[in-house]
Structures are given as C-alpha cells and as structure tokens.
Amino acid sequence: MKILVAVKRVVDHNVRIRVRPDGTGVETTGVRMSMNPFCKHAVEAAVQMAEAGHTEEVVIVSIGPKPANDVILTALAMGAHRGVLIETDQALETLAIAKLLAKVVDEEKPDLVLLGKQAVDDDSNHVGQMLAALTDRPQATFASAIKLAGDELEVTREVDSGRETIAIPLPAIVTADLRLNTPRNAALPMVMKARAKPLAIRPASELGVDLAPRLKVEKVSPPAERSAGRAVNSVAELAAIIADDVNAMEAI
Amino acid sequence: MSVLLLAELDNGALSASTARVAAAAAQLGPVDLLVAGPRAAADQAATIAGIAKVIHAKEAVLADGLATLLAGLAEAYTVIAAAASTTGKDVMPRLAAKLDVQPVTDIVAIEGATRFVRPIYAGNALETVTDLQAKHVLTFRPSAFRPAASGNAAPIEALDADIVSAARFIAAHRTESDIPDLSTAQIVVGGGVSVGSAEGFKLVEALGRTLGAAIGATRAAVDAGYAPNDWQVGQTGKIIAPDLYIAVGISGALQHLAGIQGAKKIIAINTDAEAPIVKIADVALIGDLFDILPKLTAELEKSGLKR
Predict the structure, then answer these.
(1) Which of B98, B106, B292 sits opposite A235 (nearest CB)?
(2) Which of A166, B128, B169, B216 is the most exposed place for a label (fewest CB within 10 A)?
C-alpha cells in the first residue's frame, strides 16, 4: 500500500498571534513557523503503518512557499520516504489546495491519503473532504483510530455525540484528530538522514489548476477583549451571584 | 436568495442546533429544510419559524451519501447551508468541491447577503469575507445565533431518492446522559485536570446537575480519562457560547479559551490568582475546588433556583 500525506506549514501553535493593525491579516513575518499539529498526527499514522509492514512508501506533499520544505523535512525525519513541494507564494483557498492535491493523487495513485483534520491558522477543516469529492473517494474525517481490515479501513471518528466507527473501502481519504496517536520527535540522526531523502520541488503553476480566489477578505480583526472582573471572597457570595444570574435567565 | 438547509440530527432526533442555524439561514432568504432521518424529526422541523418547506429524505448519516443527496437538490438554490457540527464539517466541504464552490464555514455573524464573519486562529482573530460566487456553501456556528421560534406548520414533501454511500456505518459509541447538549446549553460547568481523578470530576458534575447545566472539560482532563471526549471544550473540541460558564480548576490554556470566547459571563474557581482564566473571568473565587465545590453545590441547592 502507498500512502500520501499532505502537510501544512503554519504559525507555530504556541505563538500568541498578533492581528496587523491595518486589518490586512495576522502577522506572519518573523514569527516561528512549524508543521500544523493535526498534520503531525497524520504523518505519525502513516509512519506507524509503514513500521507495521502495511505500507511500502509514505510520500509527503506540501503546498506553499519554499520554506515549506522545512515541514516536509520534519515529516521525512519522522520516517516518511520522499517529499514533494508544490511551490507557490500565493495564499491559496482550500478549494485550490484540494484541486492541486487531486492532481498529485492522479500522478501518485496512493491507496490512502492522510491529512490533518484542520489547519490551526485558517481553521477551515475543508481540504480532506474536498479532495475526497474531487477524487471520488470515500472519506473518514476526525479519525481517532485507524485499523486496516483486508481492503477496507475501519476508522473511529470523534463526533459531537461521542465516537463512531465506520468502514471505508480503499482507496480512501482519512483526516486525523488529536487522539489518533502521539507524534514522535525525530532524533538528530533521523533529521540528518532526512536531508538525503528525495524532495522534488514543482511550481504550482505547472499543474494546470485555476488558483484565483473566490472570496474577498475584507478585513481581519482581533476579537473583543475580555478583562478581569472582580474577586469574591466566600462561597456564600459566589452562590448568591450564581443564583441571581440563573434566576434572571430567560428560558430558551 | 433561496436557501437549502441541512437539518442537524442527533441519533435520529432533531437537534436544538437546527432552530439556531435556521434563524441564521432565514437572514439570507426563504429556507427549505432537508431532514434526512425519521419522519418524527421532519414533523418537528416543520414547526420551526421561517421554514418554507421541509424536505423529508431517507435516513443518511455518512458524508458521501449526504453530499450526493444535497448536490442533487442544489440546482434550485442559491445557498446550501448546514450547522458547523461534526456532520456539517464532514459533508459541506465535500458538497462544495462537487459543486466547484469555495465554502465559507463556521460563520458567527452575517453582515450582508454575501458578507460573513468567521473566526480564524482558534478565535484569536476574526475574518470578514465577501463571497463573490454565484452559489454559496455555508456553515453556521449554532451557538452564535439565537434559535428561531416554533409554532410554524410548514408543508412536508417526501423525497424518495435512495442514498448510496461507499462507506459503511459500523457502530456509534455514544456518551449516554440526560444533561443538556453542550454546544447549545445556557449554563456550562467545566472541569480541568486539577480535579485529579474521575472521582474528583464528579464534584463538577454535581454542581452542573444542581444548575441544570451542561458539563465541559479541558483537553487535559479528557486525555487523563476524567471525562468523555465529547465533553471537550476548546479549539479541537466543542465551541460553546453559554450565558454562564463556570470554570473549575481550569488554568485557561489558549486551546481551551478558544472554545469559551462566546460565553457571556465567566466565573472561575481556581487556586491560582494568576491563572489566565482568572484574568478574563467576570467573577473569580480563589481557593481549593475540593473545599469550595461541595459547599457551593449545597448552598445553591438550598437557594431554590428557578430551573
């Protein structure tokens, strides 16, 4: 089986982001970048399947500017075999990303495509589902467990009501949730070795996809700020506040 | 603009989220509501104010089948919408790609027929976009909208199409409880990892029961096994917007704060006066939760709440 994993380079999830004062977006220059956490779970799942002997090749693809090579190298250091960067300096919408990935799926013909369920920058949670539609494959999103059963996958999904298990025939698309696994930190020798693994760079314009945006971003603004209120000193005082609030609520 | 809205179901019953997203959708035009589930859910859906017509289809829960069903109906509508629930998130991007539409999802405010506000970076920024396309695929965050009233008697039209899916449903592992639905609850009591054990978490649940509240938990508390995964509140769990949120033993990691930004009032009970949650709470009581919670619950029991 061959697995393709799509990964995204985003502002590191530990960075407290700053909205640009002119409202054009979130400041990303001079900010630490890293692999989107959900993508790490997808890479880890693929590498574990390779280690279990289910997979011969794990191919990593990322779409973005040249520095996105760094997140591909991270994935190669975790144990993936080969990388492809679809290079573009343009900020792309999720539909364009999914169309580019569909071209890569056409060429690579993986049995399974793994992605993170969402990226922590735009929080879209679109690309896996869109790629599934464009390649006419079944999907299992928000996976917290993946089991190979013959030519099917049994995937446990994290849903609003708890969890559910579905079976999907391969080839398929799966998106990873945080409880899928614990991603490894690659040891230094693996990081060195990753640099020797094949990494192809291709301009996005070469893939024949219309990348023009469909939405116009009018502005990006910070959320309303909350500030500290008052401290109370006793349980009785707090109970009185809660009771007043609850009794004043209009029923809905 | 005509709107086709996918009704949100929970285990075959109409979810409280549906009336909320119906209110959002009605701001854009007359709404036809698609119920892919039992007839009783369609009957209930017909009572939601602002619904022009209910389309009742066979039960479907899997993304590919639902997306195909919606795509078959899409031609007659300008807007196809759903709740930003795990179902809506699963289905709507798939539908959008089928229709060659860039979706706008997790909408928290409607500023015009094609102008929408959505949170990015876990709610640490808000993006306002204008959708320039002829057709729109949208999801609305239920907690951001007040529910539509009931009392309507919309006509119900049966749709006989068979729904085909390549995926197969095996089993649901539900957390059975009689507490209110977290994502639409008016009061939520949340517990963090400081409760120390699943036993400790019961103190949080007891306070919740007294208040008729839904129960939330931090990611750390869920990972530690103190609470089920569907109670998780935060960037990767549920986004809540109750009138009152009581955070017990929760320090306030960014991840968790992302899920509670819509709360009208936050009360924090914490040992650490410097905890991030205390800095944003409207009211804080500094102290040991094991000491405070039993007394607080008893005190509220005595006070004769109107719920």
Answers:
(1) B292
(2) B169
Q: What is the DSSP letter of B55?
A: E
Query: Does B274 lie at the interface with A, CB-CB under 8 angstroms?
Result: no
pLDDT tens sequence across A26-72: 999 999 999 999 999 999 999 999 999 999 999 999 999 999 999 99
Measured in degrees and rounded to the nearest 5, phi and psi for residue A236 equal -60, -45
Q: Do B125 and A223 touch (CB under 8 A)?
A: yes
Q: How many residues does chain A have?
A: 252
Q: Mean pLDDT over residues A228-239, rounded?
A: 93
d(CA A11, CA B151): 48
Question: How many CB pairs lie under 8 A apart between chains A and B?
Answer: 262
The neighbouring-strand residues paired with A64 are A87
- What tokens does A185 get? 């930190």
Distance separating alpha carbons of residues A51 and B112, to the nearest angstrom = 52
- pLDDT per position as a tens digit, A177-202: 999 999 999 888 999 999 999 999 99
Hey, what domains does chain A have and what are their CATH numbers? 2-207 (3.40.50.620)
Collapsing DSSP states into helix, strand and coil, what is residue B24?
Answer: helix
Which of these, B43, B52, B87, lies nearest to B66 by C-alpha position? B87
Q: Hey, are the CB atoms on A134 and B261 less than 8 Å from each other?
A: no
Q: Quote the minimal CA–CA distance from B250 to chain A in Å.
A: 15
Q: B50 vs chain A: nearest CA distance in angstroms?
A: 17
- Structure token pair of residue B245: 């949120």
Residue A86, both tokens: 């679809």
Contacts of residue A142 in chain B, CB cutoff 8 Å?
Answer: 86, 89-90
Could you please report the per-residue DSSP string of B135-191? SEEEEE-GGGSPPPP------EEE-------SSEEEEEEE----SPPGGG-SEEEEE
Judge if pTM exceeds 0.90. Answer: yes
The CA angle A26-A32-A34, to the nearest 5 degrees, is 100
Q: What is the pLDDT averaged over residues B22-30?
A: 97
At residue B148, φ and ψ (nearest 5 deg) are -65, 155
Smallest Cβ–Cβ distance between A229 and the set B175, B244, B282 belongs to B282
